[in-house]
Amino acid sequence: MSSFHHERTVEHATVALSELLDGHPVATFVIDNAHVITHWNKACEHLLGWSTQEMVGTRHHWRAFYTRPRPLLADLIVDAVDPASDRNFRDKYRPSTLIDGAYEEEDFFPNIGAAGHWLQLTAAPLRGHDGRLAGAIQSLRDVTERRVAENALRQAHDKLEHTVRQRTAQLTRTQQQLVQSDKLASIGQLAAGVAHEINNPIGYIFSNFGTLQGYLDSLFTMLDAYRAAEAALADPALAQRLQALRQQVELDFLREDIPTLMQESREGIVRVRHIVQDLKDFSRVDSAQEWVWADLRQGLDSTLNIVANEIRYTAEVVREYGEIPDIECLPLQLNQVAMNLLVNAAHAIGPARGRITLRTGCDGEQVWFSVGDNGCGIAPQDLGRIFDPFFTTKEVGKGTGLGLSLSYGIVQKHQGRIEVESALGQGSTFRVTLPRRRAATEERKPSDNDHPVR
Length: 454
Ligand SMILES: Nc1ncnc2c1ncn2[C@@H]1O[C@H](COP(=O)(O)OP(=O)(O)O)[C@@H](O)[C@H]1O
Ligand SMILES: [Mg+2]
What we know:
Layout: H1 2-22, E1 27-32, E2 37-40, H2 42-48, H3 52-55, H4 73-78, E3 93-95, E4 103-109, E5 117-127, E6 133-142, H5 144-230, H6 236-248, H7 251-283, E7 292-294, H8 296-312, E8 315-321, E9 327-329, H9 331-348, E10 354-363, E11 366-373, H10 380-383, H11 403-413, E12 417-423, E13 427-435, H12 446-449
Parallel strand pairs: 8-10
Antiparallel strand pairs: 1-2, 1-6, 3-4, 4-5, 5-6, 7-9, 10-11, 11-13, 12-13
Helix pairs in contact: 5-7, 8-9, 9-11
The structure holds adenosine-5'-diphosphate and magnesium ion.
Adenosine-5'-diphosphate (ADP) is lined by residues 340, 344-345, 348, 373, 375-378, 382, 386, 391-394, 399-405, 428.
């Protein structure tokens, strides 16, 4: 009798649990000690697409989640298996902070619904009055929306980070450019001053040198005549004195050495004149010139003509011109850039004949040209300095170290950029990218364009 009563109570409780669960908005199912489904509520039907009729009384709860049989959290609880020891759950589960003996898990289930769902699962033990395990209850919350939102947020965040990184890089570049142009400005002033001071004395030394050369020639002619006349001297003592004197001053040696000295000095002066000219160009990057619309390719070709002699025996020049529109520029100055790059390329090529490649192209409102060589390349530690005024790795007399900084200034004046790619021993490519038209802020009166120092 008491046993009958007990049965009824359990049945009653079970029915009550069914009603409770069906009225509950959270998808929930219950399995008994034998893994048989005893409850599968309406929310569960709705979320998982499997009906109560199909599920209750079976052990098929896995079907609602996976394509092949495998335990769910509720099954582990029924079997008293620690999820930590199950490879399916090891990295995913965590003990519930609310319910003793319960576990939680969040996972993506690709087989639920059309596009899969993110579910948050909680499984807890069910105990009878006597405290013994009677089964397990598992509830599922659809957290897809939250997950999607999280992912979107993450993506937005990543994108933002990317943008920040990009901006930082741009800023760094701008800052470098500013430092560079600052340096250029002060070097420009210095160069202008030095060039001006040196130009005059060098001018008259150079012209005096020409005169001196002429005078020396006359003196030597005269000396030769005297020497020839010595034989005709009647006084042998006088002849002997002359000969002794000649040996004492080493006249023969002087006759040989003076022209050599003259020649070397002359070369030195020519070199200095060259440097001064470079300095003047450098400090007057922006002498009064007209902004005009021009085709870069024409400029490259005419520059190539000028330096052809310097390059002819060093390298073959390959032109790979892409179609480009005219750009608004100072063509003569851009020619100078091209010239510097071409000469540098030729210098970079060793004793073996090399190749210099000229390219043009455009990208939207940007037009570019590049000068590439298969020469010596640039050492990584030099890359940051090649645009510095007076930086040169060339032997004295071959380089002034002004070519690239001059070019840098010109390109900057065009609001463009000059970039280099180089591999040591393989070659370098300098690329100059220019805007098609000059920005409105640059539209100034020509007088404003002049360099402050002349
Ligand atoms: N195409 C190139 N290949 C290798 N090194 C180069 C090239 N262009 C420039 N450089 C390096 O940059 C330095 C500076 O160049 P530049 O300013 O033109 O001065 P210079 O040519 O008078 O040395 C050169 O001395 C050289 O070391
Ligand atoms: Mg150079």
